């Protein structure tokens, strides 16, 4: 079975719960028909408590029973003490969830993952996720804003990565290990992100799960406590320093700052926290963390992973839960919108075995890119870029049977608020190769609320107007310009770097099941390097290091959130 297929599908072995007959009474909150914040806040006091692990199990099973067409509950593994690690997946995308069947079909459908309670003594995010899940699965699923999210992709909710730590009220798991220092670290292990096999069961479970989700996983957000800030990669400092603050922005720094801002914009408390005046911080500029889940998911899976520190005080009093839900509710939805409802989805298809493709989107404020290597003939891959509004040039660059001449299919799209531009780029047809520039890609366009894509550009570059979606009030008017089939000389430096990486990569990979993502990272880094961005970042890091920006340590939060 192809790697991509196995990764894009949650296997039956982890999705056993479709057949679990839960006889215990479901948590009192699960049957609520939540349609508004006011209604949410009006409910009974027992709702505003930290629900136990038993209640968690009953809750997710109850959610699936209540909405089997859009909610699926399953476990991704067990904790050190043998407790189930439950995930509830919610979507209205047709065909993803099959009621009564254990597997989900996730191929090509963008997904987002909230992870709560990684530190056992930080239960706030976990509890707020219950309220979010109720709304997604129950009444509010019909609300236009929620409908847009669920029609755009899949929301995965891992309420507690550390149920043992929750029971023990400890930071670490039952073995006393801090799970957020337990993942392969790119800096400490010189880029080798292969699991050692000595990770804690909770860490291994989420690593395997994320690998299964693969490129469908657009992003993830880890919910912590102990500070009030949105944190984003990289958490590790290039120097490996454990104490000194150093800037180490990722190549996607502009994208991460935009995503963080989406959360901050609708969270008043984050906007007036004197400790973090902007409400956000790049991890290593706060305090360096190595072996954390955030950097691991970003580098290994390619998921745009962020962290929200939800409250200065850990394990806040239950009486304040309504206030916290009121504070964070809009932000938690804003993230779902930013990651799933808005942006650019690019599908592409390999015409021959062994093709490698770099997909890029460049706008005025940022550029993003992903690489996919060694595709099977006929294999279709989809990548979603959760980018801000604006005009973008999107390109797929094929490194096929003639590695000296990668071919380009490109288009221009405009991203509108809370809308998604979807397009398909196909490798140029043989007749178009090598000749003068010919349009050879084709572009499909859809939005989150439509039933499916409509063909608006054809393989020979002509517009086919009858395929244009009917315009509705306030709807998008995308500019499209199919210009595939050309090989640009300006791509030469990138091509050379990419090819060098293609040559080097075989020796540098060992584990076949993890091979593709490693090599994708390599090819991506080469892509960015050739663009000069990495050079700029390196210079910036050197300058900042020279300035010794490590001021007085922040004692409260260091290593503890
Ligand atoms: Zn934490």
UniProtKB/TrEMBL annotation:
<dbReference type="GO" id="GO:0016485">
    <property type="term" value="P:protein processing"/>
</dbReference>
<dbReference type="GO" id="GO:0005615">
    <property type="term" value="C:extracellular space"/>
</dbReference>
<keyword id="KW-0732">Signal</keyword>
<protein>
    <submittedName>
        <fullName>Carboxypeptidase</fullName>
    </submittedName>
</protein>
<feature type="compositionally biased region" description="Basic and acidic residues">
    <location>
        <begin position="461"/>
        <end position="477"/>
    </location>
</feature>
<dbReference type="Pfam" id="PF00246">
    <property type="entry name" value="Peptidase_M14"/>
</dbReference>
<dbReference type="GO" id="GO:0008270">
    <property type="term" value="F:zinc ion binding"/>
</dbReference>
<dbReference type="GO" id="GO:0004181">
    <property type="term" value="F:metallocarboxypeptidase activity"/>
</dbReference>
<keyword id="KW-0812">Transmembrane</keyword>
<keyword id="KW-0121">Carboxypeptidase</keyword>
<keyword id="KW-1133">Transmembrane helix</keyword>
<keyword id="KW-0472">Membrane</keyword>
<dbReference type="GO" id="GO:0006518">
    <property type="term" value="P:peptide metabolic process"/>
</dbReference>
<feature type="active site" description="Proton donor/acceptor">
    <location>
        <position position="309"/>
    </location>
</feature>
<comment type="similarity">
    <text>Belongs to the peptidase M14 family.</text>
</comment>
<feature type="signal peptide">
    <location>
        <begin position="1"/>
        <end position="31"/>
    </location>
</feature>
<dbReference type="InterPro" id="IPR050753">
    <property type="entry name" value="Peptidase_M14_domain"/>
</dbReference>
<feature type="domain" description="Peptidase M14">
    <location>
        <begin position="49"/>
        <end position="339"/>
    </location>
</feature>
<keyword id="KW-0645">Protease</keyword>
<dbReference type="InterPro" id="IPR000834">
    <property type="entry name" value="Peptidase_M14"/>
</dbReference>
<dbReference type="InterPro" id="IPR057246">
    <property type="entry name" value="CARBOXYPEPT_ZN_1"/>
</dbReference>
<feature type="transmembrane region" description="Helical">
    <location>
        <begin position="526"/>
        <end position="547"/>
    </location>
</feature>
<feature type="region of interest" description="Disordered">
    <location>
        <begin position="447"/>
        <end position="477"/>
    </location>
</feature>
<keyword id="KW-0378">Hydrolase</keyword>
């Amino acid at each position: 079975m192809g790697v991509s297929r196995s990764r894009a599908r949650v296997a039956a072995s982890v999705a056993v719960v479709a057949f679990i007959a839960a006889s215990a009474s479901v948590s009192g909150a699960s049957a609520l028909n939540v349609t508004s914040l006011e209604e949410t806040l009006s409910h009974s006091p027992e709702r505003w408590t930290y629900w136990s692990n038993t209640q968690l199990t009953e809750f997710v099973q109850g959610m699936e029973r209540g909405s089997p067409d859009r909610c699926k509950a399953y476990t991704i593994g067990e904790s050190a003490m043998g407790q189930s690690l439950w995930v509830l997946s919610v979507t209205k995308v047709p065909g993803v969830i099959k009621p009564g069947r254990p597997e989900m079909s996730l191929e090509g459908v963008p997904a987002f993952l909230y992870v709560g309670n990684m530190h056992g003594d930080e239960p706030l995010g976990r509890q707020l996720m219950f309220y979010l899940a109720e709304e997604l699965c129950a009444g509010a699923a019909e609300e236009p804003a929620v409908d847009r999210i669920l029609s755009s992709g899949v929301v995965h909710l891992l309420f507690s990565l550390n149920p043992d730590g929750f029971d023990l009220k400890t930071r670490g798991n039952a073995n006393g290990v801090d799970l957020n220092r337990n993942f392969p670290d790119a800096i400490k292990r010189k880029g080798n992100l292969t699991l050692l096999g000595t990770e804690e069961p909770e860490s291994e479970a989420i690593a395997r799960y994320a690998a299964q989700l693969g490129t469908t996983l657009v992003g993830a957000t880890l919910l912590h406590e102990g500070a009030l800030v949105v944190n984003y990669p990289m958490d590790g400092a290039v120097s490996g320093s454990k104490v000194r603050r150093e800037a180490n922005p990722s190549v996607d720094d502009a994208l991460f700052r935009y995503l963080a801002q989406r959360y901050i914009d609708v969270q008043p408390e984050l906007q007036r926290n004197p400790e973090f005046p902007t409400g956000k911080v790049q991890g290593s500029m706060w305090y360096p963390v190595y072996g954390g889940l955030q950097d691991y998911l970003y580098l290994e899976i390619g998921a745009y992973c962020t962290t929200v520190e939800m409250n200065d005080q850990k394990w806040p009093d239950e009486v304040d839960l309504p206030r916290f839900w009121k504070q964070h509710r809009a932000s938690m939805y804003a993230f779902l919108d930013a990651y799933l409802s808005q942006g650019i989805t690019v599908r592409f298809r390999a015409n021959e075995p062994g093709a490698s493709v770099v997909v890029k989107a460049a706008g005025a404020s940022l550029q993003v890119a992903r690489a996919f290597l060694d595709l099977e003939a006929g294999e279709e891959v989809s990548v979603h870029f959760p980018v801000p509004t604006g005009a973008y040039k999107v390109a797929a660059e094929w490194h096929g049977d003639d590695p000296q001449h990668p071919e380009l299919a490109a288009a221009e799209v405009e991203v509108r608020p809370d809308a998604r531009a979807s397009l398909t780029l196909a490798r140029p047809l043989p007749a178009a190769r090598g000749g003068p520039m010919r349009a050879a890609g084709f572009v499909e366009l859809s939005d989150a609320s439509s039933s499916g894509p409509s063909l608006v550009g054809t393989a020979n570059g002509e517009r086919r107007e009858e395929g244009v979606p009917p315009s509705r009030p306030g709807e998008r008017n995308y500019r499209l310009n199919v210009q595939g089939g050309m090989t640009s000389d300006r791509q030469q430096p990138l091509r050379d770097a990419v090819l060098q990486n293609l040559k080097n990569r075989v020796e540098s990979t060992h584990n076949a099941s993890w091979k593709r993502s490693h090599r994708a990272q390599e090819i991506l880094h080469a892509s960015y390097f050739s663009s000069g961005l990495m050079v700029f970042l390196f210079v910036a890091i050197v300058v900042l290091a020279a300035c010794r920006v490590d001021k007085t340590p922040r004692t409260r939060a260091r290593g503890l959130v």
